[in-house]
Amino acid sequence: MSEPFVFDPRHSLCKTPFGAVPCGGSVTFHCRPLASDHFDHCAVVLLGEFSGSEAHLELSCEGPEGERVRFSGVVAAPSEAELIWYHFRFWRDDGSGCILDSTGYRADGRVEPWQLTVYEETLTPQWFGSGISYQIFPDRFCRLSLPDPAGMVGDRWVHENWADAPEWRPDPDGEVRNRDFFGGSLAGIASKLPYLADLGVSTLYLCPIFESASNHRYNTADYAKIDPMLGTEEDFRSLCAQAGELGIRVILDGVFNHTGSQSLYFNVDGFYPTVGAAQSQDSPYAGWFSFHPWPTDYDAWWGIRTLPAVREECPSYIDYMVEGEHSIIRRWLRAGASGWTWPTSCRTGSLRKSAPSWTGTFPTPFSWGRSGRTPAPRWPTPGGGGTCWAGSSTA
Questions:
Q1: Beta-carbon neighbour count of residue 185 at 10 Å?
Q2: Is residue 197 classed as helix, strand or coil in its secondary structure?
Q3: Residue 292 counted as domain residue
């Protein structure tokens, strides 16, 4: 065959079905190395990120296809939602071999795997997907006036010139803090609703809008408060109401697997009057975070210290965010949101398991997982068979 690739997950010659698969489904893999490489064996190596599971499935050799040899196998997807990182290993009967990952063949002990998302099938409201879904980064969408950052969390400053380049470089401490703002607002978004409706937009997906020390607002400081540079809760309610009159729904970005270090929950710099987990082990939020030891070392999202990771299994966190009568999810659905996104990297099943309790309270709310991650897998060193690769990897 003339196709140049050994494996391409986007091509039906190599993987079916295309893209993600439902829980309990199956995936068929075909690898097609050149016959001149003289590989006698091929296996797919799979790591489940949430479960920590590892599997090695040897593919069957189906014989030659022109100048190539085809190895095939079927992988059963787990029964629960999962992120699976996978690569392939090839070896010869004499013990020589290599691995194949998203970069190509390699034998340097590193792995850059492909990702397979395994999702739980759920009912989708009829309103979602019937038109255009339009994602907005609120700080850069529309500014109606120049905001004053005085008194807000974080050492913020505002670009007067809308056309300025954002400040992307680390500060003297080596941190990229994203403290420069441009001043987009919820009122600015509302002013563009007729334009969005003319485009055929039926769903607005807003990047985080809650109080935060950074312009991207993924380091949430207070989930119960709209960032004051964006506006107020009344501005949010007005945006949702005006959008609804034009047949547009609003979906919020739920950052549920970490908070900000400058938040009322962690409060590393004491900005908030509440006692945060970084200030006292008696804080009501102390159980949300993992310290070792307190308070200088703690789990953080990808090791970024401004993003302390949340213990998603903590009962008080689950109640605050998801299951309580006045939980964050319920609060903003009541204020006019039609749904939420949340990262598929959230390990807790609480959001999924409790969904019936809050979806039944509101008219056809919607939630979905998003994934754009790069892996930090723990690839084991394969044993036996006289193979020559080292399967350990650095993140």
A1: 25
A2: helix
A3: no
DSSP string, 114-143: EEEEEE------TTTTSSEEEEE-GGGT--
H-assigned helices in the chain: 186-191, 193-199, 233-245, 315-318, 328-334, 350-359
Alpha carbons 40 and 371: distance in angstroms, whole number? 35
Structure tokens at 270: 């004491």
In terms of Cα–Cα distance, which of 374, 375, 380, 383 is closest to 392?
Answer: 380
- Residue 217: how many other CB atoms lie within 10 Å: 25
In what order do the strands lie in the sheet containing 132-136?
Answer: 132-136, 201-206, 249-253, 339-343, 366-370
Q: Say which DSSP state 303 is in.
A: G
Local structure of residue 320 (DSSP, 8 states): I
Q: Residues 6 or more apart from 62 whose CB is under 8 A from it?
A: 70, 71, 72
Task: Write out the two tokens for 109.
Answer: 């002990």
Q: Which domain holds residue 80?
A: 15-113
Domain count, the chain: 2
| Residues 26 and 104 placed together within one structural domain of the fold | yes
Q: Is 189 left (phi over 0), alpha (psi -120 to 50) or beta?
A: alpha
173: left (phi over 0), alpha (psi -120 to 50) or beta: alpha
Indicate if 215 and 78 belong to the same structural domain.
no
Q: What is the pLDDT of residues 327-337, one digit of tens each?
A: 999 999 999 99
- Burial of residue 16, with CB atoms counted within 10 A of its CB: 0-12 exposed, 13-18 middle, 19 or more buried: middle
Q: What is the CATH number of the domain that holds 235?
A: 3.20.20.80
* Average pLDDT rounded to a whole number, residues 30-47: 97
pLDDT exceeds 50 at position 394: no
- 316 found inside a domain: yes
DSSP code at position 380: P
pTM of the predicted model as reported, rounded to 2 decimal places: 0.73
ω into residue 356 within 30 of 0, thus cis?
A: no
Q: Is 366 helix (H, G, I), strand (E, B) or coil?
A: strand
